[in-house]
TrEMBL record:
This is Rod shape-determining protein MreD. It is a multi-pass membrane protein. It is found in: Cell membrane. The keyword Zinc does not apply. The chain crosses the membrane at residues 6-24, 36-62, 74-91, 103-126, 138-162. Belongs to the MreD family. Keywords: Cell membrane, Cell shape, Membrane, Transmembrane, Transmembrane helix. Its main location: membrane.
Length: 220
């Protein structure tokens, strides 16, 4: 991985983990806890691809395993997020652009459900039956709902930061849309400077054409 990818990924994962442990976990919501660490891994994997997504997922999961108040074996969540990060990276389009928010939203729901199932499955292998006491079905439902509600505020921002760190302005001559930009525009109803940018370009072209006409008159 590139140094800027590592630096950005570590920063975002640490910030997400601190917010999750100190804020989201203290909300005492019924069922699952909103998983901001998972959403961070998903956002980075959708930009960087499966290999980087798996590495980021493993590191983020290991930090979550070691962060207090950890009540499970170290490496359990690291394995889960490693698999989820790899699979989410496979959902990244080749050109890095999506025209609708349906794709990333489906990835979020699938990842929330898959993470809960994998975590419960690994726990069952090591003798942890906490998911049975709470109710696996209720955990799956609440995890999907909470992560889906939190995703539009977290994932597009993470993807935009990842794109900026890659020094990729995403100038699309084919009329496509960046993944993060498309999600913000269609998924949250926001417009990210497209009209303003078009007006600025049009105004610059108008001034250039006027300057050309004036110079032509002076030549005559």
């Amino acid at each position: 991985m590139k140094f800027n990818r590592i630096l950005l990924s570590v920063t975002l994962v640490v910030v997400a983990l601190v917010i999750q442990v100190s804020v989201l976990a203290r909300l005492q919501l019924p069922g699952a806890v909103p998983d901001l660490v998972l959403l961070t891994v998903l956002g980075l994997a959708l930009v960087y691809g499966p290999v980087s997504g798996s590495l980021i997922g493993f590191g983020a999961g290991l930090l979550a395993d070691l962060a207090p108040p950890a009540d499970h074996a170290a490496g359990r969540y690291a394995l889960v997020l490693c698999v989820i990060g790899y699979l989410a990276g496979l959902a990244r389009p080749e050109n890095g652009r999506l025209k609708s928010a349906s794709g990333p939203m489906a990835v979020v729901v699938a990842a929330a459900i898959g993470t809960t199932l994998l975590y419960a499955g690994v726990g069952a292998l090591v003798g942890d039956t906490a998911a049975r006491h709470v109710g696996l079905g209720f955990l799956l439902f609440t995890a999907a709902v909470y992560d889906l509600l939190l995703a539009p505020f977290a994932v597009p921002l993470i993807m935009a930061l990842a794109r900026r760190a890659e020094n990729d302005p995403l100038v699309d001559t084919s009329g496509g849309t960046d993944v993060a930009t498309g999600w913000l525009a269609s998924g949250t109803g926001l417009r990210i400077g497209t009209q303003r940018g078009g007006l600025l370009v049009k105004a610059a072209r108008t001034r250039a054409s006027r300057a050309g006409r004036i110079k032509g008159v002076k030549r005559l």
